[in-house]
Amino acid sequence: MLTTTVNGIQLAFSEKSTGPAVLLLHGLTGNRHMFEEETRVLKKYLRVITPDFRGHGDSERSLSYALDDLIEDIVALIEELGLPSLHIIGVSMGSYVAQGVAIRLGDRVKRLVLVATKSTGKTSAMQALFEEHKEELEGLTHNAKILKASKYMYHDLQAVGLWSKEAAKKAEPMTAEQIEAANQALTGFDFTGELSKITAKTLVISGDHDQLNPPEKARETARLIPHATFAEFNQSGHAPNVEQRLLYLDFVLEFLGVERTS
């Protein structure tokens, strides 16, 4: 693990291999360890950088921040690492941050992959799902709510469950206050008026069983980004990178222009 201080906050990140850089951005309440399988493959061809957002993983656990702060942290990390150009892959909340970074950095972002994404939201997708099923979830803890609501989020519950547990083992659990702060950071964002500024060639991937960020929201995001293509995975929910990992990696490697050696 490496650390650096950006915008007065200590960020933790991992860095593997050399070559053209690709930045992997995790989802809400997640951490960089969620990308270990992707990293294992991508590091054969690319310099792979996986940060923990502020408030998450091994980064400083702030209790008040906004989505713009997450975006500015990542922009600052890119500058700190001296990256003249890079590719970015963002999953769920990471895809919102990726959109913001791509808007700010323009043609320095060469390829952009947005997974389980949307471009606007009044609340976090998780909060919206909990509200939709509030009677079923009433009285449960946050983690119990996630477990109960997983059937609305994912198609392959077993694969996602194993993946989540492995990543969770490698970071301190988030407190209720930290989870609330992360959810509040996603209140009222809207990139729809700025997506036309993205110059990166963009791939948007959605799972057709995703009720957190349904395919129509991802499709609309792709429609608003110049040079974007949309792919819908029919055996995935909110985690196509886990639920159909081999197909996902095939799509991503081809999109990034990687010449596979094995």
TrEMBL record:
It comes from the Bacteria. Coiled coil: none annotated. Keywords: Hydrolase. The keyword Hydrolase applies. Residues 20-242 form the AB hydrolase-1 domain. Pfam families: Abhydrolase_1. GO terms for molecular function: hydrolase activity. The keyword Transmembrane helix does not apply. GO terms for cellular component: membrane. This is Esterase.
